[in-house]
Amino acid sequence: MDAAPAPIPVPAPVPPRLRERLTVPVLAFGGILMAVMQTVVVPLLPDLPRLTGASPAAVSWMVTATLLAGAVLTPVLGRAGDMYGKRRVLLIALGLMTAGSVLCALTSDIRVLIAARALQGAAAAVVPLSISILRDELPPHRTGSAVALMSSTVGIGAALGLPLAALIVQYANWHAMFWATGALGALGLALAWWTVRESPVRSPGRFDALGTAGLAAGLICLLLGVSQGGQWGWGSARVTGLFAGAAVILALWAWHQLHTARPLVDLRLAVGRRVGLPHVAALFTGFAFYANSLVTAQLVQAPVATGYGLGLSIVATGLVMLPSGVIMLLFSPVSARVSAARGPRTTLAIGGVVLALGYAVRIADSTDLWVVLVGAAVVSTGTTLAYSALPTLILRAVPSHATASANGVNVLMRTIGQAVSSAAVAAVLVHHTTRVGGAEVPTLGGYQLAFAMAGTVALVATAVALAVPSDTARESAGAAVPGQAAPAKGA
User: Fold this and answer.
1) CB 37 within 8 A of CB 181
2) Can you spell out the DSSP letters for 248-291?
3) If you average pLDDT over every residue of the chain, what do you get?
4) What is the pLDDT of residues 199-242, one digit of tens each?
5) Helix, strand, or coil here: 30?
6) In sequence order, what are the residues at sequence separation of 6 or more whose Cβ sits closer than 8 angstroms to the Cβ of residue 363?
7) Residue 434 pairs with which residues in a beta bridge?
8) Entry pTM
9) Strand runs labelled E in 327-455
10) Which of 39, 72, 265, 19 is nearest to 168 (CA)?
């Protein structure tokens, strides 16, 4: 008789205890990768017109495409995760991010590069999906610190991405940067596939395709107007048309969401004070946080002849930004302990105040490197406190079957805040310039005005945080946790 066929080896399942230990670091690695992907292209922007043969306006779309795709896909993939499985959608997002890097590594055609960067925008959904997975999978006593770390990955990755990209671009072919990020993306995808378990919590129903199309059209009009307003002219027909179109489309979209049985975004839940105010706070916090990265990078690279600039190289600038990411990593557990002791509303308010104090330091002195580092560190500390508190507030206020969607909307609000911050900072600096060595450069007063604007917005975020209804019983008990949702209605 013929011998029986040899059994096909099956990979051993990950032991439950090992999986539990690896879930948080693997998801955090994915979040850091997402932020790295968004920032690595920045050092390349000045040279890309020469490298690709494209105009500077076309090259700028390598940033804009990622922003638009991320804004549109974050709430969409969040809802898909609630419906079809958070792990499944997380793997799709990581896969699209990795595919985008590989495409960028293989081409110098600006059209393909822009399309590939749009694919990478899908990674913006990694953080809200991961936060929802953590709520579903971890025991309550571990959820707070894990969510705080996950929220901080946005700043950690942004701080790591710039020096990484600058070093690769300076010492290797620019395509090597995308091969490196592609390899890291593949590693993150493999680790997530191996360790992350599919959550059993689902919200079944028909996917709202019309709502998805409406949200996409409205956000594209809004963010395209915001991101291109400085270049096209804020009063131009194109920009005003985009803003008018966004207002009409989003109004119709909201009407549809309120009148459909299975909306993409539950607006009745989102406008309640327990959920709506954290979304507003996310908008203002995103604005305040992003101004620090934008202004610091330009200020330290400004020529020494300006009287305030340090004339640093791109690599040195990246290293100046690096401590901010380290601080966010170190302070995420501190933020979780503050939320456990005083409640996430208090943590969010403290974060806004600390952000404002950081900008006060920047206004007082932005000419000495050590003061720049101290001011940026204080801003990063405030950002860590605020960003870690926001998802905890959302998790407490929504039912478990809607966590990915609700956190997706919260991340979307941060993204909109960052886009508006970019446009506002650019507008301020353009109107406060001086001529140095035959070139127009921003004045120190322009930078200080940008810092003052960001600090004021941080204080507004603090006021919004204090208006969020508190759950006195839970907060006095130490917040046992995000695993138990508070009532969704606004107080």
Assistant:
1) yes
2) HHHHHHHHHHHTSSS-SS-HHHHTSHHHHHHHHHHHHHHHHHHH
3) 84
4) 777 777 778 889 889 999 999 999 888 888 877 888 899 999 99
5) helix
6) 448, 451, 452, 455
7) 441
8) 0.82
9) 433-436, 439-442
10) 39
